[in-house]
Design brief:
This protein has 72 residues and is mainly β. Helix content is 0%, strand content 56%. It has a single domain, classed as RNA polymerase II/Efflux pump adaptor protein, barrel-sandwich hybrid domain (OB fold (Dihydrolipoamide Acetyltransferase, E2P)), CATH 2.40.50.100. The N and C termini lie close together (5 Å). It has a 4-stranded antiparallel beta sheet with strand order 1-8-6-3, with no helix packed on it. A 4-stranded antiparallel beta sheet has the order 5-4-2-7, with no helix packed on it.
């Protein structure tokens, strides 16, 4: 099963913690977003492998933008 992870609000990508091919466990943080001076961790809900990463540090995201896909 493929999990698509989307931005929940307008924010900027503060830190990217994974790359394509990274093995992740359910609940792992993939990236950290920054919005209104708050750091917001973006977590995966399933264990698997990061298939694609669609963001880079410093990028500004809109609500609904695709951040990553994880193969479970």
């Amino acid at each position: 099963m493929v999990e698509e992870i989307h931005a929940e609000m307008v924010s900027s990508v503060w830190k990217v913690l994974v790359q394509p091919g990274t093995e992740v466990a359910a609940g792992d943080t993939l990236v950290i977003l920054e919005s209104m001076k708050m750091e917001i961790p973006v977590l995966t809900e399933q264990a698997g492998t990061v298939r694609e990463l669609h963001v880079v540090e410093g990028e500004v995201l809109q609500e609904g933008d695709l951040i990553a896909t994880v193969d479970g």
